[in-house]
Write a structure and sequence with these properties.
By secondary structure, the chain is an alpha/beta fold. The protein folds into two domains: 6-283, 3-Layer(aba) Sandwich (Rossmann fold); 288-385, GMP Synthetase, Chain A, domain 3 (2-Layer Sandwich). It has helices at 18-26, 54-59, 84-94, 115-127, 153-160, 182-190, 297-305, 345-349, 367-371, 377-385; strands spanning 6-11, 30-35, 44-47, 65-71, 77-83, 105-108, 130-133, 148-152, 172-176, 195-201, 206-212, 221-223, 230-233, 239-243, 250-253, 256-259, 264-272, 278-283, 288-290, 293-295, 310-320, 324-333, 361-364.
């Protein structure tokens, strides 16, 4: 296939990259999105619209698209080449589950260098809505006038600490980015939050399974496959396989472009329930063996996230002379007063987890990781291996 030129575009939180992207796409260029790592403090509504005929011109440039860096649990960066057509398909198909269009405003606190960030702008381009860029929401008032927002579990937990009511303008809160507890989801629904679970990857132009959540839905539930997306489960490994029009076309390996194999092997494990809805168990990359038994860190993280006062959790496997590897947990605590209920974390976990899943140590989440959208298992594992000391909670 024709490669097209590859250009770099530096972006950060608060940037609106759409005009520069469209100009590059009209030239048939691939745009490698590079994060500046600087969080802007602006909070401005950008009304986005393409001029008449622009999409026809863009479709005449088949190599147009973006190249986005992503990393698995190993922490090693990969560069995914996503065609414009795949992103347009993702925006259109996703809107059948979560409608978005003229008059709607999607709050974005993600840098456009990530697939979740750039897809918010693409949805606005395709569907006619607007984007408000700004910092991570910490109070419900930060979302006043917003109709849509994408959150990870820790962000939702922090917002629920605000006793104020959520803005009446909210139509959809899309929850993704890793495990979140059932108690957190139920608490949001009980407060009238229009909550949707979502699962997707950079290689799939964001979401491939999305659904509205109800009280009592399992913490593993991601939702039904989006119409037009094929999801299957490998009968041997339990790996989730994905195919459809939203898949990336390739990736750069050691500087060489390699076509993406279909169906995509996601390296995530899961299952489809009797209603055909996708459930996520965990990452094959993060699973480890302890005393001959498979341990999925995500299972422990969900149990920790269900405890009162826990915003988020991250579990890593550390070397152990007898068992091979053992789980160690980091948790972000909502408030100092919550620590009283966390003095016996292991005791509380025994109610929901088998003995071999109880972490050997539980530490307070480092401030830098707690402040990030999603704590990094690779970084925390590296810091433990380097001998860094952390505050023990239990």
């Amino acid at each position: 296939m024709s490669q097209g030129a590859l250009i770099d575009l530096e972006v950060s939180v608060g940037d609106d990259p759409t005009a520069r992207l469209v100009e590059a796409w009209e030239r048939g260029e691939r745009v490698r999105l590079v994060s500046k790592g600087i969080a802007a403090k602006s909070d401005v509504v950008h009304a986005l619209a393409l001029p008449r005929g622009a999409f026809d011109r863009l479709r005449c440039a088949p190599s147009a698209g973006v190249v986005i860096a992503t990393s698995g649990s190993s922490g090693s960066p990969r560069f995914i080449d996503i065609g414009l057509e795949a992103m347009l398909a993702s925006a259109t198909l996703g809107a059948r589950v979560i409608p978005f269009g003229a008059g709607d405003v999607w709050h974005s606190s993600l840098a456009p260098a990530h697939i979740g960030g750039v897809m918010i702008f693409v949805r606005a381009l395709v569907l006619g809505g607007a984007v408000r860029v700004g910092a991570q929401p910490r109070r419900w008032s930060d979302l006043e006038g917003v109709t849509h927002v994408s959150l990870v579990g820790a962000q939702l937990a922090r917002l629920l600490e605000d006793e104020a009511s959520a803005p009446r303008s909210l139509k959809a809160v899309m929850l993704g980015g890793g495990p979140s507890g059932q108690a957190l989801r139920d608490a949001a629904i009980l407060r009238g939050i229009p909550l949707f679970s979502s699962y997707g990857l950079t290689e799939t132009s964001s979401q491939v399974a999305t659904g509205a959540l109800r009280i009592g839905d399992a913490a593993t539930l991601a939702g039904p496959p989006i119409e037009g997306i094929g999801i299957a489960i490998d009968p041997v490994s339990g790996e989730i396989l994905v195919d459809g029009p939203t898949l990336a076309r390739g990736e750069f390996v050691d500087g060489q472009w390699v076509e993406l194999a279909r169906p995509l092997r996601t390296r995530d494990t899961g299952f489809l329930d009797e209603s055909g809805r996708l459930h996520i168990i965990g990452r094959l990359d993060s699973m480890f063996i302890s005393g001959g038994r498979n341990i999925h860190p995500e299972q422990i993280e969900r149990a920790l996230a269900a405890l009162a006062g826990v915003r988020s959790a991250c579990v890593v496997g550390v070397a152990h002379e007898k068992w091979g590897r053992r789980p160690v947990a980091f948790i972000d605590i909502a408030a100092v007063s919550a620590e009283k209920s966390l003095r016996s974390v292991r005791e509380q976990l025994r109610a929901t987890l088998e003995p071999h899943l109880i972490p050997d140590a539980i530490y307070r989440m480092p401030i830098d990781e707690a402040a990030s959208m999603k704590p990094s298992r690779a970084r925390l594992s590296s810091r433990l291996a380097s001998g860094e000391r952390f505050d023990a909670i239990d």
